[in-house]
């Protein structure tokens, strides 16, 4: 690889998968002092800390490696040499060929946004090019645009640093800055409404004309909507998918994620997460966001009963809680579909069939079969065995806060209480 090319060099900082893992890993310090905070503050701290954590799993590393390789190829094609760069940027008739389009998709909560942020950390070293008579000119190799509301093309170019002329001369600006790759996260927010797929398809096509490698990230539901577009648009927008799937419940990657959460919450967990790896995967579908949410709710339940640590029974109670109901419904829908039952909503089904996607559904089937066998085995238990199982699942009563039954206060009850007090005096 040509290390002397200043546009390629930033993407070569991670030349191996092991180096990608070490550079992309984001491990916050273990949480301490929760007992000194009120429950709301403590819950917020746990949520924030676990959200920051990123463990580059096998599937995530494969996608990151692909993005880096694609960026290198685009840099070589877009910026062949310093002389060609100077000639093109100074040309009064600037023109550029459209760039390739890739769609990064996956289940909601699988970690697409965290992965894209990790890629940005991998290429934080900005390159520079020596221009005769002008000295060193800094280059921006990789740009990521984070959409959290109904923003359009103007907001995208603003986040990329182009504010002077709105969306005029964007191609020249991005080329001059040295942009090779641009990532649009949460693409579904590009346009709202029932016909959003038409506007989003148009926006994606227009952005690709800026000449950069365009990677747009979205959920499955948007992919299904984009499939309704005319054939020529689908071919342009959806021909190059990158799919991020959850890791297997018995994989070292899943255990690494659980170990990372264990390290963060260690002093506030009464059990080892990795000892419940399969069960925890079954409760979350292997989705990181669901796992984090489950741990946060479990801490809330533990704190409510004045316990300093989360027990496994708190995890089970969190899964059954009203707060987790929407996520629980989606996990159940995935398991039901994997076992041949009712098909889930389209937001849970990937349009791009692959080996990894098939493996995920196989993992769901296997875990679902285990859950069914466990339920059948539980029905066969005798009275003493069922009592022992119930005791295992029930929180320790010694740390449960006893609540005094509330008494409804009425005028009559207050009058009677006053009479009794007067007689006693």
Keywords:
425 residues
Structure in words:
The chain is of the alpha/beta class. α2 (39-52) packs antiparallel against α13, α12 crosses α13 (288-304) and α13 (288-304) crosses α14 (312-319). The N and C termini lie far apart (97 Å). Helices cover 51% and strands 8% of the residues. The radius of gyration is 27 Å and the shape is globular. Strands 4-5-6-1-7 form a five-stranded parallel sheet, with helices on both faces. The chain contains 18 helices and seven strands. The chain has helices at 17-24, 39-52, 58-78, 82-89, 112-122, 153-159, 170-177, 196-208, 220-226, 231-238, 252-265, 277-284, 288-304, 312-319, 325-338, 355-379, 383-393, 411-424; strands spanning 101-105, 128-131, 135-138, 142-146, 181-185, 213-218, 241-243.
Order of helices and strands: HHHHEHEEEHHEHEHHEHHHHHHHH
Helical element count?
18
**Average pLDDT:** 84
Number of strands: 7
Strand order of the largest sheet: 4-5-6-1-7
């Amino acid at each position: 690889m040509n290390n002397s090319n200043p546009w390629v060099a930033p993407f070569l900082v991670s030349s191996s998968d092991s180096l990608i893992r070490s550079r992309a890993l984001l491990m916050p310090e273990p949480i301490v002092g929760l007992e000194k905070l009120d429950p709301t503050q403590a819950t917020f701290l746990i949520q924030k800390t676990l959200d920051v954590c990123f463990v580059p799993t096998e599937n995530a590393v494969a996608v990151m490696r692909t993005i880096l390789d694609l960026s290198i190829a685009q840099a070589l094609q877009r910026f062949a040499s310093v002389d060609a760069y100077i000639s093109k940027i100074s040309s009064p008739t600037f023109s550029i060929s459209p760039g390739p389009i890739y769609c990064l998709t996956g289940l909601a909560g699988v970690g697409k946004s965290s992965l894209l942020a990790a890629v940005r950390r991998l290429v934080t070293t900005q390159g520079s090019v020596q221009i005769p008579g002008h000295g060193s000119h800094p280059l921006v190799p990789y740009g990521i645009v984070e959409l959290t509301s109904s923003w359009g093309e103007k907001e995208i170019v603003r986040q990329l640093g182009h504010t002077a002329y709105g969306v005029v001369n964007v191609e020249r600006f991005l080329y001059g800055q040295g942009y090779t790759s641009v990532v649009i996260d949460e693409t579904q927010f590009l346009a709202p409404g029932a016909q959003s797929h038409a506007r989003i398809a148009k926006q994606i096509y227009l952005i690709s004309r800026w000449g950069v490698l365009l990677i747009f990230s979205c959920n499955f539901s948007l992919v299904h909507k984009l499939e309704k577009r005319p054939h020529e648009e689908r071919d342009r927008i959806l021909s190059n998918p990158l799919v991020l799937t959850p890791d297997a419940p018995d994989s070292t990657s899943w255990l690494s994620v659980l170990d990372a959460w264990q390290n963060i919450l260690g002093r506030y967990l009464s059990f080892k997460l990795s000892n419940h790896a399969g069960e925890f995967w079954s409760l979350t579908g292997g989705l990181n966001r669901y796992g984090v949410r489950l741990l946060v709710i479990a801490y809330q339940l533990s704190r409510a009963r004045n316990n300093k640590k989360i027990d496994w029974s708190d995890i089970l109670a969190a899964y059954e809680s009203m707060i987790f109901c929407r996520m629980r419904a989606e996990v159940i829908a995935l398991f039901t579909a994997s076992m041949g039952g009712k098909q889930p909503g389209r937001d849970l089904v990937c349009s791009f069939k692959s080996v990894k996607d098939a493996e995920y559904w196989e993992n769901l089937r296997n875990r679902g079969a285990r859950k069914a066998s466990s339920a059948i085995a539980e029905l066969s238990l005798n009275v003493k065995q069922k009592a022992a199982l119930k005791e295992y699942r029930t929180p320790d009563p010694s740390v449960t806060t006893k609540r005094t039954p509330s008494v409804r206060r009425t005028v009559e009850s207050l009058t009677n209480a006053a009479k009794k007090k007067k007689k006693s005096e």
